[in-house]
Amino acid sequence: MLAAPALAAMPSGRVAAQPTLGEYLIQGATVLTMVPGTPMLADHDVHVRGRQVVAVGPRITAPAAERIDARGAIVLPGLVDTHWHVWTTLLGNLADSSSEASGYFAMTGRLGRRFGPAEMRLAALLAAADAIDHGITTVHDWCHNIRSPDHARAALAGLRESGLRARFSYGATRETPFDRPLDAADFTRLHDAWDEWSSEGRLTLGLGWRGVMATVEDRPAAVPEAVWRADLALARDRGLPVSVHANNSAANQGHIRELAGRGLLGRDMQLVHAVNAQADEIDAVAREGASVSLAPSSEFAVGFGVPPVAALRRAGVAISASIDTPALVGAADLLRELRIIQGLANAQTGNEMAMKPLDALAIGTRGGAAALGLGEITGTLAPGKRADLIMVRRDARALQPHADPATLILRSVRPSDIRLVMVDGTILKRDGQLTRIDRSLLATEVAGTSARLFT
């Protein structure tokens, strides 16, 4: 296990110390609670004490609370990303398709081998800074660059320091032979010592599983049953969630059918991409209660295909949205992914009303929380939920005051419009500025690390 002194010696992005939890009264907002059946609440307050939302209502009295003026603003739950290879954030925009060598798989494979623990931690902080700036309060770090136990713990250290809520899914590197199981001993050590990482439950552990039909680029291969069973048991024997890339390319067709035929689908399983899922596979996913995470920007960019949004929704499959990899998509703009998902739902049905903006926002808030098993904790603004929220000012860029708030959020909001981001009751962005991560010092560290990666 990575020792604490070694962690402390790594670049940190100059993260500020965790502040003392306070009490806040966010006053006079238009509140989108994202609670099903709850309409938009005009001129409402949100009362936060410690880590929790205490109340949502008009003219709340809280004498001890710090007032935050939200008149002219929209307050809603923070966005929830459900699949992000966080380490690739340090390789943002480098998959430029100018040559085979600069393609996503070749480039990340080549540079990923040069990552040490320090790069893993720095990537997590860089990802967190971009996530917070874009209103994302929960991320799912699908970590497939764990080259040593120290790599895993360094990535976790960055997530823990950032203040974000996160699931860390422990996965094999892409070059790990298909007949080699995960490092069960290290996974077990990490699980058994999870109290050291959980930050009062803010971080959770999961499995980034290869499934039964792993692919790397266009090279499919069956994973030996002894291997996939051993890996899967690491999670299911401990009651941990499982995430697997399935039907994500032309080379990975039929994977969901194989999972269903072996009785492996379940409510604890998230399927990533599923762009080639056929009708029988979609029905199986719906029947067994698994969910699907979609990342349309990266799916388009890398040539995987078009996610079957309308078919998934018709079958009743729970879908969520993800960043996937900044190497392909650049900024951590989850609203971009939700806009595309809405567009696909409408285009695939020929119906402008098939998915409304509020439906798309639900996918990126309570839908994402449910997909990560966090539906009782976050994803809506309600008393007793953790205080994961964002505040968007409509007057920041003269955003149309008469526009439907959900439509405005989905279509027009930029990071500069997001004035407040709170996670677990802690303010991570205020007045448009990050409060824990020093962006300029982080940029300096990233520049130095990038120079080392390319020499």
TrEMBL record:
Residues 74-427 form the Amidohydrolase-related domain. Transmembrane segments: none annotated. Pfam families: Amidohydro_1 (PF01979). One of its GO terms (molecular function) is hydrolase activity, acting on carbon-nitrogen (but not peptide) bonds. Keywords: Hydrolase. Belongs to the metallo-dependent hydrolases superfamily. ATZ/TRZ family. This is Cytosine/adenosine deaminase-related metal-dependent hydrolase. It comes from Polymorphobacter multimanifer.
